[in-house]
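Consider the following assembly input.
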Amino acid sequence: MTTQFFGERIKRNEDPRLLTGRALYVDDVHLPGMLHVAFVRSQHAHGRINAIDTTAARERDGVIAVYTAEDLGDYWQPGPLLVPPPPIEHCVFNQRTQVPLAKGKVKFVGEPVAMVIAESRYIAEDAACEVFVDCDPLDPVVDLEDALQPGAATVHDDLDSNVAAHVIQEKGNYERARAAADLVLSRRLLYDHGAAAAMENRGVVADWDGRTHRLTVWDTTQAPIPIRNGLAAMLGLSESQVRVIAPFIGGGFGPKIMMFYQEEVLVPWASKRLERPLKWIEDREENFYATTQERGQTHDSEIALSSDGKVLGVKDVFLHDTGAYVPYGLTVPINTQCTLLGPYDVPNYYTEFKAVFTTKPIVTPYRGAGRQHGVFVLERLLDIAARELDLDVAEIRRRNFIAPDAFPYDNEIIYQDFAPLVYDSGNYEPVLEKAKEMIGYDEFLANRPEPEDGKAIGLGLVAYVEGTGIGPYEGARVQVEASGRVSVVTGVGTQGQGHFTSFAQIVAEQLGVDVRKIDVVTGDTDQFHWGAGTFASRGAVVAGNAINEAARDVRAKIIALASEELEVAGEDLELVDGTVRVKGDPQESIPLAELAVRANPMRGAVQPGTEPGLEATNYFGPERGATAAGVHAMIVEVDRETMDVEIRRYVVVHDCGRVINPLILDGQIHGGVAQGIGNAFYEQLMFDETGQLQNGSFMDYLLPTALDVPNVEIGHEETASPLNPLGIKGAGEAGAIPVGPLFAQAVENALGEEGLEILEIPVTPSRLWEMVRASEEDG
Ligand code: MCN
């Protein structure tokens, strides 16, 4: 195999279409006779519905239908459980999934109560305001600890508490390690998260065609095939009667994997019932309430160390806010639990969590998916331990790294993919050293720069791992067409990750065809029938390897046919520039286009069993996930008056195995860091004591802008994964994971305040100001 495409910094194929506004998004779909949908949503976090009066709305000109839960009949069912709990010995799980329209009770502000269909969105919105929901407020369930008190109001009437899940996992014996330790530190740490705030909100267009008995749905989903399968089952259709298209999507970041959003269940149902195409596009305000979010955890954590800074054990007990329903199972808290140990050799670990139902919007994964919560806990404990033991923060990390010869490394707990948490490969010290070198770590410590205007300057450096590339499987079909172009189809959807180019590079490498002649299709269930979706940084590992397998099969077909045609042994042939040619004799060649025509004969006999075409379908399913790793370092300047923090430099050194496209990878990391900065410093969903979101608009919910996101300097190490033929690990979430603890460490380092410990994220300037004042008063 030549290496002309894999690993190259090739510009993204898809960008000309995206940048010139010629890409199709869901809202670009306009169909004749299309109607528009608006939803009536709960105003209360928790309330008993007495009656819903839709009379005025139904009578409004242009309104076609108004539906409540009662109108849905047997179609009214709780949604499916997307991910059942893994087989963990101590795991209690109370499955409660969202319903299409609230019946009897509302459980969070924004929960859909009624659906209005009208000639235009304007009419639908006006009519939605005329639906009167007679609802008696009930006690809200907001604070996690209060929610678990005896006598607290319960979110689900049929449960006697708000415990959604209780999970314990153990490695070794923490109590024994604690007894033998020289230093034991315990802290309470809070980690809050926010909204994914993708540029494009959600949307669904559904078109039931009564003549062909087929349903076509355009959906901003990250998982078109599971949506197709679920819709077919719910609507009593065969899977081949339903086509789900996930066209270009302006960011998913996790929440668009949710299955099923209420709107995704209702819009296709109503289209079938009315035999009219319907469109619903979420507005920004709805996005703050109706799209899933990630949210707070409260950790009570302890670390036990020897006097030389070696970690002997960690204990972590936490509460996780799951919102009103738990459709995504335990993925987020299990990720927290399983990512907390990071790249470190921790022999003893006790980890316990309770997931808690609250009367708030549903929590599902958002870029990092709970990993950052765990990384925050251990990285902060290491910082505090380093201070107590008078060790350098980089050194305490280095001393605890898993040694390169200790892989595969068994953490002896179960991961979100149901497999044991065994890291496949890693070599962490060179990553740390490169990050130190790039940021100028030693020079900074030896000669701390003098900031201007009374500002404080500080350095931070943290490490993390990212579990990526989980199963079950993905598939792909690769075909050389008679035009000489190559078509590639796979079941995953794309929300901006550059798949059209990186997947093309994998095929280009196998077939010797320029990436610009390779057309990749993702997210159309009529093109490919099997697969799971884009999440957990699995596209490159799972779909990428499936594509590689299919391309390899096509390569074998090409060689076999060309060897017959040219009367040359297969091993003497090579694939270069869209041709098959004899090694050392480039004149002896056949263009792939011509070979593709010959592979599809129109006359004459072929051998029995001959498959037409230069085409193959293949699949890949990894045994378990591949573990990527990295170190982030940054230099900040803190204004002591305003506590505003400016990032002077930001360095990422990352190891995700073999890299398909370093340009795309850098973009992925850059985007992740931007979201991590938002999480660390700007973004927090603020709920008041009644469960009302206080900052559900971009006027109040702060996103970092281009002014706040620095240039990110990126370095790579490559430790191949042994778990897939391409040696890849995923990378999509890496940028976002360790920013919180990095930020906390760097700010503490800058301020140098005795007793200042940043144990919560996000930290806004005003919160930082309060903390500094508190530490000064204590001091
Ligand atoms: N890549 C590579 N070499 C590697 C690993 C990855 O060149 N060793 C490339 C891949 O080929 C792909 C991209 O990097 O083009 C991301 O690959 P991967 O890490 O496999 O992630 P996925 O394709 O599974 O994408 C999902 C991941 C997740 S979980 C979130 S959340 C996220 C993210 O990707 N959401 C995103 N990145 C995003 N980027 C954009 N623009 N929009 C989102 O919604």
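The longest strand covers residues 455-468. Ask yourself how this observation constrains the way the partners meet.
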